[in-house]
């Protein structure tokens, strides 16, 4: 199908997705794709249906697409104390930062995301489809605003407004279409209850992990270790909103889970939500390569915060994160490592076998 030289960077990226990861380490197509999304001409904008908060699909002149989440708040705004994880607003910069973090941790399971500042008149209003256009209005201070249609926060009092005419947002590279790359949706075993008074099973049973590890697909292959990686990523960012995850059907069950939907991370830099680490705390396993990476960031020359600062410096909307969030990353690496240490001391004391908690296998490329 067509000459490889005529492919857009997004198409090249999509063709490079493997059973093990979205892209290869140091693959130059990633930076080219980020730059395309940040600079290419936009020709059409419409709302993505589904999901709880507003998201726009951006069509570029070269037919590539991106998923846009608008900025709602300044970087310093924290999660409102009386909001649950499921009513928290989404933060566009959390999508950008989590892509960088996923990459630095060596997972490569998150789609590339860049920041970009748009002109709300010429790059949204004038390119919007009729549905979206209907939700535009001019605010009392004469800024152009829209609210779209969705389950939460799509009304006049939660509108997205130009400032006065610019709007910042995150642009995530589009996944292959459902036809090209159909995906399977999985319920996360450590999903929260999404109810203000109810608790989930894992919150009430301390040996919940023994149940999980006996059932497919967690009883074999890489999947349980992938959930541990996901809980590491989510604990570092403070994301409590991991209800489902998706895999590509073509790769079967022994493939990586996509890291999608990170808009609710980076909301509380001064608290570390240990319950996000529950999978790791309850199962006491972690992939050896992940442990090595965390140790390197903890004891090595470059701390995780430094690596993140460096990685995000070239983003068009840098600085992407408020400084306290970077400080939190280093502190949380320390907490993950002490959780692993606790696991070790638990499992080595009862029998002389290899400590179960450490992790064993990489099972990333070849198993
Ligand atoms: N980069 C992407 N390209 C294409 N589709 C995507 C991308 N990221 C996410 N999606 C799809 O869009 C849907 C909604 O995305 P996302 O989860 O980020 O939004 P959300 O409003 O938080 O949704 P929800 O309320 O269901 O959690 C997801 O089910 C996912 O399948
Ligand atoms: Mn979500």
UniProtKB/TrEMBL annotation:
Main location: Golgi
GO cellular component, one term: Golgi apparatus
Catalytic site positions: 241
Pfam family, one: Fam20C
GO terms assigned for molecular function: ATP binding; metal ion binding; protein serine/threonine kinase activity
InterPro entries: FAM20 (IPR024869), FAM20_C (IPR009581)
Protein's recorded name: FAM20 C-terminal domain-containing protein
Cofactor(s) for this UniProt protein: Mn(2+)
Record family assignment: Belongs to the FAM20 family.
